[in-house]
Amino acid sequence: MKILILLDLNLSCLLPMLLFMLGAFLLGWLLKHLFGREKRELAELHITHDELNSKHNAYVSDSTTKYNSLDGRYSSLQSDYNIAAENGEKLKKAELEIGQLKASLDIAAKKPANEKIVEVPAMGLAAETIATSTTEGDNYTRFYKAISAFFGAKIVKDDLKLVEGIGPVIEKVFNDAGYNTWASVAGADAATLKSILDGAGDQFAMHDPGTWPKQCQLMVDDKWSELKKYQDELDGGKMN
To answer: Which residue of 76, 91, 181, 197 pairs with 204 in a disulfide if CB–CB is 3.0 to 4.6 A?
Structure first.
């Protein structure tokens, strides 16, 4: 009987201890399981991060290579374009020279016995001379064809539109006022020409005829190279 009582007492004391130990074991197992899963997930995240970082670096490297390649190609194309543009300007200038030289050769081949010498400008070349008839016949017409080739526009004698700053409307205004030739404009002063424009209407107020008499005088004197150089310095017929 005493033994049973002692046994019962021992079991009563041991049971809470056993339950405590079991609880501690279960808690430890649960914590180990949870932390173990978090470690695995963290390891997987590290692997994913490394893979993404590697892909990013590869993308940046590839993009940089492609950019450098495209930039080099662009620079090459820009250089080719600049060369082509420069050659185009040279070709245009050469074509004008060829046209002027052909006109000069045509006139020289057909020059009459009775002739006078007038200047013909040549772009990039020394001024040349061509023979024109003193009667101002066919050869004189060919002379203006040569001048037209030089200026890149059709030119006839006493065409006031050759003056930089004079267009068809202003030419008509001057014609109506009695100024029909280069010589007549060359002999007028700028103030007189300005008063004619003012009398024609407010729309002509912006025009400045200050250089027009000099331009016409150069035409009268057949100083075409000097005229071209002078006009290159003008802006709409005005001095820059």
So the answer is: 197
